[in-house]
Amino acid sequence: MTDVAAPPSAESSILRRGLRNIGDMIRIEPKLFAIGAVGAMVNTATTLFVSAVVGWVVAQVAVPAYENGEVALGSVALGVGALLGTSAIRFSSMCARRIGAGAMMFRVQAHWRRQVTRRYLALPVSWHQKHPTGTLLSNANADVEAATRPLAPLPFACGTLFMLAVSMVVFFLVDWAIALVALGMFPTLFALNAVFASKMAPRAKRAQELRAEVSAVGHESFDGALVVKAMGRETAETERFTGSATELRDAMIGVGRLRAAFEPAIAGLPELGTLLALLVGLARYQQGALDLEQLVTVAFMFSVLAFPIRAIGWVLGDLPTSVVGRGRVDHVLSATGDMDYGEREPATPAGPASLEFDSVAYSYPDGGEAISDVTFTVPAGKTVALVGATGSGKSTLAHLAARLIDPSRGAVRLDGVDLRELTHPALAATTALVQQIPFVFDDTVRANLALSRESADDSRLWEALAAAGADKFVADLEDGLDTEVGERGTTLSGGQRQRLTLARALAGSPRLLVLDDATSAIDPRVESRILSGLKASSEVASVLVVAYRRATIALADEVVFLDGGRITARGAHTELLETHQPYADLVTAYEQAEAEREFDEENVA
Amino acid sequence: MTTETTDAEPGPFHTLKRGLRLSPELRRGLAFTVVLACITAVGRLVVPIAAQQVLDNGLFTDAGPDLGFVLGVTAVGITVLAITTAANFLMNRRLFIVSETALANLRRRTFRHIHDLSMLHQQSERRGALTARVTTDIDQVSQFLQQGGMVLVTSTAQILVATVVMAVYSWPLAIVVWVVFIPVTWLIKWLQAHLASAYTDVRRSVAKLLSAVSESVVGAGTVRAYGVGSRTSERLDASIEEHRKDQTRAIRRSAFSFGAGELVYFGVNAVVVVLGAFLVAGGSMTVGELAAFLFLVVLFTQPVVIGTETLNEAQNAVSGWRRVLDIIDTEPDVADPVDGVDLPEGPLGVRFEDVRFAYPGGEEVLHGIDVDIRPNTKVAVVGETGSGKTTFAKLLTRLMDPTSGRVVIGETPLTDVRFSSLRGRVTMVPQEGFLFNGTLAHNVRFAKPDIGEAEIYVAFSELGLTDWVEALPNGLDTELGESGANLSVGERQLVSLVRAYVADPDLLVLDEATSAVDPATELRLSSALDAVTRGRTTVIIAHRLSTAETSDEILVFDGGDLVQHGRHAELAARKDSVYAGLHGSWIEQTRSS
Predict the structure, then answer these.
(1) Same domain, yes or no, for A210 and A102?
(2) A contacts of B482 (beta carbons < 8 Å)
(3) Which of B261, B132, B152, B246 is nearest to B197 (CA)?
(4) What's this model's pTM, rounded to 2 decimal places?
């Protein structure tokens, strides 16, 4: 999560960026914000009104009752009526404030989640590879939440600011001396809240980071549980986890110390202010500057305004986290390198397609070249096998062929049209890639195969399943095509997942099939059944296949041999066996080993 | 998760009791913390009492307003405030230190326990959910203890203290306040239940949202290659919208339930005004006492209102806590024996005696396996997908225990062997060897932390992989990325193999550990392994029959039975046998046509 290098900006910059973020969010949902803010203002106004009612009750009900020894029923009724009426207004305005704030926050969150995930779908695979899954997940979830966090107390804080202004006017109208006490207390309280919030922010952020770290360690360790257990490393892993957990503990204790220092002061200050207001008020009462009703009202106002001021502190406290969260969200939203698709349709609409690599090079983001100067063709209806040692660049070529990535030099062409000029639907309909590590959606078998393609009706799906050697196991599933496969297909074995993704590719009747070592988790016997099925298929496609197995290679019309990202030999399998020793070494490894073994055994005999 | 649908959920107090029993640290000094909380609550009384005193004894005195007296009251008030503020400070500090320490320990224990639970358990529950046990669930408990828990303590104290003072001022009025208050608690309880169900929905929809987002991230390649972006974004939008609706519903219910508390406050105030007026008129109450009472009602109802919210958090925290406790209470079905023995020195043989295995609630997948693997031999296990090969390997390494029958290793029942001895001597390399985020060296050291760089190099060169390491951008210091993402699948297998080799076990089990490696490399590895496996027992779950050809013994599995075993030549010679079939198709595929 270091990719957003937050510059060590001054606090004012955080404040500025935080406020700008809030402004942006208000612009997204202005109506709901207005509802929340008006609700908050009305609500705080009733708080002040209650102070007035309490003062009035003491002065107009209690004192006369005390002096006359009887109750003025009319005044009592008025007091009760005022209280109950206020309570109805308070209830509805409070609901408006909270629901307005909540609904606004959730809408903004949904808005950004939609935008972020849209970017995920639009950004190229190479961008995805540069960002750990965990980071991208938290960009769409935790970071969006962090960015919107100030919205929850925002209307409340706005209402408080408004009411503070009103009360200061009231204080000045009542008596200048009381107003001076208020002028002393409220800014101090405000400052205390602000200092607390700004001191808390970095600590809270640190705790949040450590929480993410604890989570990452836990995730990784449980993901690798089999290895951890097989190697008996549970204790060491627990120590590693405890290390992060201990850091988190210490950070949280730090948060606690700060809270311990500020919270009691923030709670105590208004009480101190009320005491002082009483003292000053009484002195002024003695001088006849204010009456009893005003004295009680003012004292009450001091105590009821203390709490809403905290809302301003909450907003300020959430600003730094929100700035960081927003920064991460923007990092995704502003990421460039979109894979733009062209406007063209393939030159030929039907039948097997031809694929051409023309002086193609591909560089990793760090600059190293994975593929250099690769030129070869998969003629229409033919099968070309990519053969090479582990790490020679075969998968990269497969990804280029399906346009998961774009070449850094040269061009890949389909029926003579550069892949970059084709529309996305045309590309997806023409080419089907089956990846080395199968990916299945958390959905039914049918949905995984059909992927909403209209042509893929059930009979087409069963044909594809049969061709992929997956018809039997799917038929044996409890709900057949309607079986839910679970997240990442956890209910299936590795080989089953691979066959399912193969069937998915075939279900779309592609004109070019790209198989990236797509049968590695399948038993040889099952694989040979699948491959013969493919050959016998009625709809012939051009095939680019990454393979090790001789049977797979034997299917190919031509073999392209890769070594260190370059083509070192091309030709028919039998031809290469004779002319290119590295190729022969690789593909006849088993035979050679067997021959040596027989030779050894003969010698021993 | 099943915990949310269970009917007979134990009550929150039961969970709290269990929780406290498991974290005795939390109980330490609890009494002192409560005393501090009470002192803090007393602090809230300063203003009402001062107001009463000022009005009654400073204002309405026969001699007219007495400023000196009010000055005295203010001074006393400030002193009490100072003391209670100090108590508040101490309480906050204690609370954080105690709860964080206790929860860090709980985290550690839970983490360890999850690792001790068997593989079965780890597969049936999603790993993400397990991670939540040691992260968010415990975070919730900690948040609750520090904020909600403290609020509950101070709120209770505040209600008690306010009651006492109200009773002193006017006991009839105090009783009336309580009588109005009691039915309200029922209303609040009802609203709570309503709210809790809304939050359950929120949790469910956020899980769905996260799963949808992770598909768009993990499956980016597939989404792209099949042009199903719009389908995926529809699903994403639907889950985002569902989550938003659930959240909004929850906040609506929470606003109503919070508002209910406010209504109470006003109701009580109205009652106090009416009755108070009569009491004052009757002379049984002073004006100052009535004014103080109005302040006290705030003191009394505020904890009710805040407590309403806190009880919500409490419910979340308690259910989180319960989930954690449920994990800790789950007995590992593969347990480290109490008086375990160490394995004998030297090469290890393994014997299966009528071993059967079924996954819980599933059909039997191994039907009575009897086999003897002699020490120092290389054994290949072959069979079609689903024949029981991998189950066999997991039983062999005690990642699972048989349903019946037993596994004997070096003449000791496997279940009697101490884990520390077993895991050091028996190592399995799974097909999908997991790599950790870190350097190549870091990953190899996972097996043996104290190993030096030179030794790691030796390991790579002994397995004939020097060229491969040297071709990496930073050699041993190359960062492998999350789950080894910077390497190809085959390369990841190479690293797992080296890691196992470095562990230097006496029984090495390879579960299709080289399925994604090219044939030449595989053969190089296997001949290298042959050289180094001398002096140890090796069991290879073979994917490629080439491995079987060179083994001392081959075990052929078919449909959960051991159908054949012997050397390659004799097995292959038996024409219509399962092995002959497997081998035939292997030859067909690997030989030139």
Answers:
(1) yes
(2) 132-134, 220
(3) B246
(4) 0.75
